């Protein structure tokens, strides 16, 4: 059994890294960010891959795409949902953005957010890392899909983080 598979058999605890209070503050950051744009920002965290996926060697990126579909982040009116996904066992952060961002945001912008979040995670600042990621994503989404004066936007996806 590989070291990676073992990390998924004996994963770190999501609740030890992100308390209910921390999840509430992340929800607040998502709500504050969404007040500046018409997109949808979602955050999902998972301690480990399902064992059959870990055994098959599914990457954190592939899993993030599965979660994006599972949470229906793609199901927004103008295809402007974005997922920030954290896989604790792999110490991996991934961003999956819907097709509405094509031609509006380049891969380097998304990667820069991942790099910033990853640096904070390495320092053990889990809540701060995710709040920073949400704020950075909201800044990017606000440029691509700004909320103009008087625009009322419908909240199409839950703001509460998803713990898988």
UniProtKB/TrEMBL annotation:
InterPro entries listed in its UniProt record: TPM_dom
Coiled-coil positions: none
Entry's transmembrane regions: none
Domain TPM span(s) in chain numbering: 18-138
Superkingdom assignment: Bacteria
Pfam family, one: TPM_phosphatase
Protein name: Membrane protein
């Amino acid at each position: 059994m590989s070291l990676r598979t073992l990390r998924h058999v004996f994963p770190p605890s999501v609740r030890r890294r992100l308390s209910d209070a921390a999840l509430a503050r992340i929800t607040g950051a998502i709500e504050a960010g969404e007040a500046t744009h018409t997109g949808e920002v979602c955050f999902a965290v998972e301690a480990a891959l399902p064992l059959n996926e870990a055994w098959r060697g599914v990457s954190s990126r592939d899993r993030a795409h599965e979660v994006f579909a599972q949470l229906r982040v793609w199901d927004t009116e103008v295809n402007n949902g974005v997922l920030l996904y954290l896989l604790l066992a792999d110490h991996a952060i991934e961003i999956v953005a819907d097709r509405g961002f094509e031609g509006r945001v380049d891969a380097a912008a998304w990667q820069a957010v991942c790099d910033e979040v990853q640096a904070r995670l390495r320092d053990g600042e889990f809540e701060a890392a995710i709040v920073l990621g949400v704020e950075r994503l909201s800044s990017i989404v606000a440029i691509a899909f700004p909320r103009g004066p008087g625009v009322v936007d419908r909240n199409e996806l839950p703001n509460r983080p998803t713990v898988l």
